Amino acid sequence: MVIAFLQHGLLFKPEYWLIGVLLYLGASAALIMGRLPSHPYFYVAVCLVGWYVLSTFYAINPQNAISASGKLALAIPFLILGAQLTHSYRVLLMRLLIYVSAGWVLIGGLLKQFREGRFEGTLEYANSWGALLLTALIMQISLTAISKNKMDYWISAILLIGILLTGSRTVFLIALILIPIQLFILKKNSLQPWLHKMQLRSLYLFAIPLITLICALAISRNLTWLNRFTSISPHASEWEARLGYYRDAWRIITGSPFVGYGGGSWNILQYQFQTAAYSVRYLHNFWLETWIDVGLIGVLMIVLLIFLTFRQAITQYKFVTSSDKAWILGCLLASCGLLIHSTVDFTFSYPLLFCLWVLLGQWTAISQPLETTDRTPRLTSHLSVRLSVVLIFITASFVSIRLGIAESLLIKADQRYAAQKNSKEAILLLEQSSNYALFPADQHDKLASLYLIRYLANKSSTTDIKRAEMEANQALAINPKDPHLLFLQTQIDYVIGNKVNAVERLRILQQQFPFRADIRDEYAKWTVR
Predict the structure, then answer these.
(1) Which residues cross the membrane (predicted)?
(2) End-to-end CA distance of the chain
């Protein structure tokens, strides 16, 4: 989890493929001596991941689908490892996440991890960084209610400062709702959190660093984060834009409402259904994106996960001690905070945040199979079952290594060509990358582009343009609805000499994708000629 924290929340492909290997191997080692979780929550999560993997076989873009599956699949080893821990170790792990988050607020301030005046932290995106800090703050409040350590007030103050510096209005509003609810319930259960019956000295320990640091940062840095809080409005430009995304997403959903189009389909289908000029990698809505990816079936699995989380939290809350109540309340509200934020942002596109969300749902249950005195043999304790899962994880590790290498070579090829304009070396790297990838659509796309560029620079060789045509066709065989690939194919056709046919196909593409500026501009050039 700490590695994921430091590696951009595992947002980028090489990171989550290669770190996934460590998770799968760690979960395999844990299963040899431990046991599988027995709660239905775990098996619903397995079904969700399994459904994403199955969607690869009917996806409009198998390469994106396998990547989306790989992100979500990291939750399974997280859940298995989390199930092996006793409650005390879970508390220790959560404290580690809290301390690392608070420590990075200070380190990030020194390293000036700000963009446009907003604090982005290790995730390099202010809103998601704010959601992570809010999760840490909610858990910190619950742990403070249990331990009543004065140092906890300083940690809480630092986390709150970090949240404010992100300038995330959504996180701020969620905090204004969830934290008062949390404090009210803790006080009602006589846990005396924070300001309840605190001495004046303890109040100073919290208030002085909070006021001092906020004033210092406000004076020394851009006040963009503060201005955002004074301009909270349902008519904000980014909110209006996202509503447009959501309307277009619903049009996509109606085309295949039950099974979806496979993981990562939004990146392709947005251009076909968009009603305004935009190009966004993420839909900024977990529910709609899941619905597009895996249909209503996948959405119902998410709903079932939420139901099981609340059911086990409410059931156990009635019978546990006050300290355990504080823990359950923290896990439940932190889980709600992440879920609410994912409704208006791409929070769960970060594997770290998605895995943290499913872990919080699992950890709302205090008692676990490893802590019970029941010695009755269960299916989850049978060695043959555990070894079967270990074999699956080893296979997943092998696939992750291959895909991680493929993505690393792909990035290296882009960097080499951008820095040196050396198409020969970039082509060699891309060919190596395509050998490792399962669905090398991106590799064939980039190879086609490089061969086309090389032919235009030296038209004496027809080998390059023929190779460009072949690579483009191979990419389209994997991803036939990608407007970029369709556009590239028409460009190659035009260069070959089939100008009349290419212009007609480009006209059709312009009608099909009216907001693609590159297609519109190229068509204008061709028709002028």
Answers:
(1) 16-34, 40-60, 72-90, 96-114, 126-147, 153-181, 202-220, 291-314, 326-342, 387-405
(2) 57
